[in-house]
Write a structure and sequence with these properties.
Elements: E1 2-3, H1 6-33, H2 38-60, E2 67-70, E3 74-79, E4 82-87, E5 91-97, E6 102-107, E7 113-116, H3 133-136, E8 140-141
Parallel strand pairs: 5-8
Antiparallel strand pairs: 1-2, 2-3, 3-4, 5-6, 6-7
Helix pairs in contact: 1-2
Length: 142
């Protein structure tokens, strides 16, 4: 079974959270250091709004990114210490999101999840990633 590297998985999963927290910290430090200037209030508003948007992106979209291992017969979804195994006939939909280099997986009776490409040569945010042979038959590109 092939799965994406752990470094790549954690980078994609927590990038927007970490960047949003840094933006929030910069906004708070700016507000504490220079509270009286109108320019600094505007900068605080911009940084804080950006932090909230990035944090919301993480909660809505990137919290659904899971570790998935693929083989020709099974799909394994890793949830912490547990691993759930599914057959390919339980897969309802599999789409490749080209710009993000993520796959969207919909299982029968389960909510959709997102996972990373298993290829080592694929760019993290590539526009035209390659696909494994056994996935090329099952995916639809959007």
């Amino acid at each position: 079974m092939k799965e994406a590297r752990l470094v790549k998985y954690y980078f994609v999963r927590y990038f927007f959270l970490a960047f949003g927290l840094l933006q929030g910290l910069a906004a708070i430090l700016l507000f504490v250091q220079f509270p009286d200037s109108p320019k600094n209030r505007f900068a605080f508003f911009v940084f804080f709004t950006l932090a909230l948007v990035l944090f919301s992106l993480h909660l809505i979209f990137f919290s659904k990114v899971k570790r998935v291992a693929l083989s020709k017969k099974k799909v394994s979804i890793m949830l912490g210490d547990r691993t759930k195994h599914y057959d390919w006939n339980e897969v309802k939909e599999l789409k490749l999101l080209n710009f993000l280099n993520l796959y969207k997986l919909k299982l029968k009776g389960k909510p959709q999840i997102y996972f990373l490409s298993t290829l080592e040569s694929a760019a993290l945010f590539g526009l035209f990633p390659d696909e494994p042979e056994f996935l090329s038959k099952k995916t639809t590109k959007i």
